[in-house]
Amino acid sequence: MIDSEADALTELTLQQQRDSIEFYELLLDEIDRAAICERADIPPDVVTMGSHVTFLDEKSGTERAVHLVYPGDADISAGRMSILTPVGAGLIGLSVGQSINWPDRGGAEHRLTIVAVKQPNPLVRKG
To answer: Cα–Cα distance between 16 and 115 in angstroms, integer?
Structure first.
């Protein structure tokens, strides 16, 4: 997980913790277990904030493509999924081919497998 993202996610999680203690404890546990490093050290096939991710929900057999974003930018109808959703939190830090078991808001467990990751294009500055 990228260092600046870990700090921002920890702050967001602590702010929202009172709404769903169990879910946010899971996210904080994920942040605690993550290897923290700089963006330049993250391989391009690893899910980070801003990634476009295609994953398979093995329970339903459904493949979805989403853009992982902070809550203020979320719009599931436009494919922008908040990191503060159970699925969004489960995806961060995984790489292509990896899977994770993750509970949905109703408590049902899903196995999510990463099919593809595309990183956002860095802004190109013209000099």
So the answer is: 30
